[in-house]
Amino acid sequence: MYNNFMFDAELLGNLEKHFQEKKVLFRKEDFAYIAGKDTFKGKMLGFLTTDYYRREKLIRGGSLVYGYVFRTWTNEVTFTRPYPMWILFSPSQAFKNDPDLFVSILSALQAIELPKRGQSELRKLFTMLNAELSEPKYFLIPEPYAQGHLVYLSMAYHRPCHNNNLKLGINPFIMGASISKEILYLPTKYWDESFKKAYYEF
């Protein structure tokens, strides 16, 4: 179910303030937890990439945005290991004010059909959106699908311990394009009560 209700700039701003206050008291264990490096398997996931080593810096210097999780994939029935999720997100204030803007953009993207030949850019977009093993990072959504907005597509790994009741739709992410091409999920243990209420009781 897509959770498209009760999210606005004020709610995200309060969550950002709450997170910044908590971050002042962070220990190395907190950084490791958010970065997904608190377990052996977590430490091995992505360790050959440059962005892996920038996660702590991203947590320190990034900002919170609404991301729209529209797809996940796993063949596991117990949901204990990290699994990929695909997210639309934007640094634009317009999406903080009204994250429902993602809905019409997603609808346009989901209506794309795979071209039979040619149109390499459209084929690439279709693959990034739909392939089980696609790994887009800050993939810029082109016009007319972005509808005049700056919108990106990324894949990130969701760790079930970060949110054991992940909902498709609006979720909070840490982004910092000048720091890393990864985006990180903000675990529920760092949410304030108003955000939890909006997320779970819509």
List keywords for this structure.
202 residues, globular, 8 helices, 7 strands, 7-stranded mixed β-sheet
How would you describe the overall organization of this protein?
The protein has one domain (2-200). The chain is globular and about 55 Å long. The protein contains 8 helices and 7 strands. It has helices at residues 9-23, 28-35, 40-44, 55-61, 93-97, 101-110, 120-130, 193-200, and strands spanning 2-3, 63-72, 83-89, 139-140, 152-158, 168-175, 184-185. Strands 1, 2, 3, 4, 5, 6 and 7 form a 7-stranded mixed beta sheet that branches. The mean pLDDT is 92. With 202 residues, the protein is of the alpha+beta class. Strand 6 and strand 7 form a beta hairpin.
Outline type: globular
Distance between the termini: 11 Å
Structural class by helix and strand composition = alpha+beta
**What does the largest sheet look like?**
7 strands, mixed
How much beta, percentage-wise? 15-25%
Counting DSSP H or I runs of 4 or more residues, the number of helices is: 8
Rounded to an integer in angstroms, the radius of gyration calculated over CA atoms is: 17 Å
Mean pLDDT: 92
Please tell me the total number of domains: 1
Order of helices and strands: EHHHHEEHHHEEEEH
Ranges where pLDDT stays below 50 over 5 or more residues in a row are none
Give the fraction of residues assigned to helices: 25-40%
Number of strands: 7
